[in-house]
UniProtKB/TrEMBL annotation:
Annotated GO CC locations: plasma membrane
SUPFAM superfamilies: P-loop containing nucleoside triphosphate hydrolases
Designated name of the protein: Amino acid ABC transporter ATP-binding protein
Pfam family name, one: ABC_tran
Domain ABC transporter intervals: 2-242
Subcellular compartments: Cell membrane
A molecular function GO annotation: ATP hydrolysis activity
Membrane topology summary: Peripheral membrane protein
Source species of the chain: Saccharibacillus brassicae
Keyword Membrane: yes
Protein keywords: ATP-binding, Cell membrane, Membrane, Nucleotide-binding, Transport
InterPro entries assigned: AAA+_ATPase (IPR003593), ABC_ATPase_HisP-typ (IPR030679), ABC_transporter-like_ATP-bd (IPR003439), ABC_transporter-like_CS (IPR017871), MetN_ABC_transporter-like (IPR050086), P-loop_NTPase (IPR027417)
Presence of the UniProt keyword Transport in the record: yes
């Protein structure tokens, strides 16, 4: 489903990703952990081209894009890849002047050109799926952080992405609201959604991930099954990072 080869990303002279190789099968969950500044968010943003990689290649479904070869990906290729992903942001990024259901409808109308009635029907189903039936007409400021993030998940699902990308989806939430968002994510995983999740929630990583990737300083330091990476890392550096968390 997803294949990343030798991916590099620099901001000016700052090399943030220094050759990342990862692959993910359909229906699997990849959780990315690592110290702050190690490049986790940048990697995730490269996957939907919110950041343009400096070099390497990216395969998602039947889209294959190469970077740094002189031939830049065209607009149509970029759009296609972007539309195969659904992104959930740390700070929700909902439109404040639109209701929950309007937030979920937006991309279906603008990007998928669905008619309003069809978009509304699908959005109501998605809001029900994330446990928000009855909140369709609430504005973001009338919802808790956990509810807003669940709207964010429904919105990302609305365009039927091949892979869902989560960028620290619970780190802006009060601790008592984290569980309701993780529950929805676990439910999606159990239904067979392909997911890449950047998180500091080690329990989620242990329980929901098929593969855990530990990044450090722009490279993949460890990758493997959660029990291998979290309990029995092969490098001293990884053990140090994990010890700090425990
Ligand atoms: P993480 O998600 O692991 O905390 P990030 O991917 O957010 O790490 O950041 C990795 C490094 O890239 C940091 O040093 C950060 O300052 C830098 N960085 C991220 N985005 C930009 C940007 N748009 N411009 C310049 N530097 C950036």
């Amino acid at each position: 489903m997803l294949e990343i080869r030798n991916l590099h990303k620099s901001f000016g002279t700052l090399d943030v990703l220094k050759g990342v190789d990862l692959s993910l099968e359909k229906g699997k969950v990849l959780v990315i952990i690592g110290p702050s500044g190690s490049g986790k968010t940048t990697l995730l943003r490269c996957l939907n081209l919110l950041e343009m990689p400096s070099a390497g290649s990216l395969k998602l479904g039947d889209s294959v894009l190469e970077f740094g070869t002189g031939r830049k990906p065209g607009k149509a290729e970029i759009l296609k890849l972007r539309q195969s992903t659904g992104m959930v942001f740390q700070s929700y990024n909902l439109f404040p002047h639109k209701t929950a259901i309007e937030n979920v409808m937006e991309a279906q109308i603008i990007v998928q050109k669905k008619d309003k009635a069809a978009a509304r029907k699908r959005s109501a189903e998605l809001l029900a799926k994330v446990g928000l039936s009855g909140k369709e007409d609430s504005y973001p400021h009338q919802l808790s952080g956990g509810q807003q993030q669940r709207v964010g998940i429904a919105r990302a699902l609305a365009t039927d992405p091949q892979v869902m990308l989560f960028d620290e989806p619970t780190s802006a939430l009060d601790p008592e609201l984290v569980g309701e968002v993780l529950k929805v994510m676990k439910q999606l995983a159990a239904e067979g959604m392909t997911m890449v999740v950047v998180t500091h929630e080690m329990k989620f990583a242990a329980e929901a991930a098929d593969t855990v990737v530990l990044m450090d300083d722009g490279i993949v330091l460890e990758q493997g099954r959660p029990d291998q990476v979290l309990r029995n890392p092969s490098s001293e550096r990884a053990a140090q990072f994990l010890n700090v968390l425990i």
